[in-house]
Amino acid sequence: MNKKMIAVGILALSIVCSACGGTQKENKSENNTENKENVVENVSADEQEEIYEALFDVNNKVSIKIDISEEEIAKIEEDYEEYSTRYLKSPIYRRADKVTFTIGDKSYEIQDVGIRMKGNTSRTDFYSEEKGVYNLIHFKLSFDEAFDNKDYYGDDAVEWKSEEERMARKARTFANLDALEVKWNKNYDNAYVRQCYSYDMFRNFGVIAPQNTFAQVMFGDENYGVYFISEPVDKKFIERNLPEKDWGGDLYKAGWTFSPANYTKNMTYGVDDVDAGLQYNLDLKTNKSTSNHEKLENLLDKLNGSDMTKESFSEIVDIDNWTNFTAVSYFLGNPDDFRNNYNNHYIYFLKSSGKAIFIPYDYDRTLGITHSYNPDATGMTEVSPFSENAEGSGRKQNNPLYLYSILDGGFFVEEYKEALDKVASSDWMQPKRLEELFETVKANYEDVAVPDREFENVEPDRLKFSLDGEFNYADDDNNMAASDYMERILATYNSVIAQ
User: Residue 471's pLDDT is what?
Assistant: First the structure.
C-alpha cells in the first residue's frame, strides 16, 4: 500500500497529547487521563499517521468524549427540522467546545470541533428543551470547520484575524483525517463487528475500503454506548490507498435520492448543493471546480450504447477491482448495496488509466443483519450469485455494469466465477476469523455497550455482545448469527456452481 504522509500546517487551535500514567478508572462513563501537559501546536505528518494507525487498530480501546453546550445541541435539532421539511440533509456543523480521543493509554484533545447529524433514513428528531437528548443519532465530526459562513452562523460567524490563520484551520487534521463518521448500532448487530469485518474482507481481496473501528462515545461524562467510527472516503483516502500515479481523479459518492444510481442514461451527477436544492445520484467529491465529468460521461455513454464489447468494457472499468468487488459483495449479502439497491458505493476514476474502480460504503447490513430490512425474506442467503434481480429494490436488474459483465451472457462471467471461488474457499467465509475479532472487541467494550440513560429509539437489551442469532423467514426484526449466515450462503453458492 502506498501511503502519502499528508503534511499539516500550524494548528489554529491546539491539540493536547498525553500518555496516561497508572490505571484508568473503572467507572464506565469516565476515561480520565493524567498529566495533560504537553501542548502540541505542530504535529508532524508521521506523528499523525501513527495516531491514524493506532485509532484503527481494533486491539486498542478507543473513547470519544464530546463536550458541547446544550445550546449547540439544540441548534443541531433545529437544523434537522428546517432541512427535513424540504427532504434535505443539513450541511451545517455546530460547535463542540472540545473533543477528547483516548486511544489505548494516550489522549488527544481537540478544541472547537464541528459536529452535525449524519445518515439517510436514520435521521430523526433527538432533542427538546423539556426532555434533553432523547434519541440516538449518527453524526460526523469535522476537524477543519472554520465556522465563518455568515449564512449559517449569522452574528456568531468567526472573523479570522488573517487568511493565514483561517487556512491553518482549514488544514487542521486529526490522525491525518479532516473528519470522522460516528454511528450508533442502529441495526443491533449483537456481534458488533460485521461492518468492520466486511471492510477488512474487501481489502483482503484487493478492493480499497474505509477503515472502521469502535469507540465508546460520551457526551460530557455520560456514556452513550459503543459506536462505529469510519474514515471518510475523500481525497486523503485516495492518496493513502492508491499509488501516486492514480491521484487526482474524479471521486463520486452514490447518494440516496428519489431515483436510483443505476448507471443508465437517466442517472444524474454533479456537485450537491442542498441549500440550492441540488442533489444528484452521483455527488462529485473531488475536483469540484475543475471537473467536466468527462470520464463519467464516457463511461455512461459506452455502457448505454449499442456496441459494447469485452475490450471496450475493459477500457472504462478496472476488471480486477470490479470482479473482486462484486464477488465479495455477493458473499457479504448486503441488500442495501450497489447491486441490490443501487446504493452505498463510491466510484473513482484512476488518473493513470481513466478506468473506474468502485469503493464500498456503509456496510452495516451484512452477514445476516436483517433488522427492519429483509427484502428477500431469507437474509440474502438464498440469492444466486447470478441473480438477475436487484433484490433490495424489488425490481429486475437494469444496471448495465452488471448486465454486461457478470450476469448470463456477460463478458466476465468466468473471471467473476474465479473471484467467487477465491472468496468461498477462503477462511473469510468460516466463522472462526469473525469470532476472533468479536472476542477482541467484546473484551474492550462489553462493559460500556449499554448507554447510561434510556433513549426512546434504543432497545438496550439488544446492545449486548453476543454471537447468537435467530433465522426466521417471517421475521425481519431479529438478526441471524453470522455463522448461520455463512453456512447458508455457502450452501446456496455451492448448489448454483454445481449445476
Answer: 85
Q: What angle do CA 3, 231, 444 make, to 5 degrees?
A: 105
CB atoms within 10 A of CB 414: 11
HEC-encoded secondary structure of the chain: CCCCCCCCCCCCCCEEEEECCCCCCCCCCCCCCCCCCEEECCCCHHHHHHHHHHHCCCCCCEEEEEECCHHHHHHHHHHHHHHHCCCCCCCCCEEEEEEEEEECCEEEEEEEEEEEEECCCCCCCCEECCCEECCCCEEEEECCCCCCCHHHHHHHCCCCCCHHHHHHHHCCCECCECEEEEEECCCCCCCCCHHHHHHHHHHHCCCCCCCEEEEEEEECCEEEEEEEEECCCCHHHHHHHCCHHHCCCCEEEECCCCCCCCCCCCCCEECCEHHHCECCCEEECCCCCCCCCHHHHHHHHHHCCCCCCHHHHHHHECHHHHHHHHHHHHHHCCCCCHHHHCCCEEEEECCCCCCEEEEECCCCCCCCCCCCCCCCCCCCCCCCCCCCEECCCCEECCCHHHHHHCCCCCCCHHHHHHHHHHHHCCHHHCHHHHHHHHHHHHHHHHHHCCCCCCCCCCCHHHHCCCCCCCCCCCCCCCCCCHHHHHHHHHHHHHHHHCC
User: Which cell is 276 given?
Assistant: 440550492
List, for residues 28-69, the tens digit of each pLDDT value: 333 333 333 333 345 677 899 999 999 999 999 999 999 999
The pLDDT confidence band at residue 21, using thresholds 50, 70 and 90, is very low
Contact 136, 457 (CB under 8 A): yes
CB atoms within 10 A of CB 78: 14
Nearest Cα neighbor of 360 from 200, 483, 142 is 200
Place of cell 449559517: 152
CA-to-CA distance for 245 and 424, rounded, in angstroms? 33
User: Is the pLDDT confidence value at 11 over 60?
Assistant: no
Cα of 466 vs its chain's centroid, Å? 23
What span, in angstroms and rounded, lies between the C-alpha atoms of 113 and 145? Answer: 7
Strand 251-254 with 345-349, pairing: antiparallel
Mean pLDDT of 328-334: 98
Strands 212-219 and 62-67, bridge-based pairing? parallel
Q: Indicate the pTM of the whole model.
A: 0.92
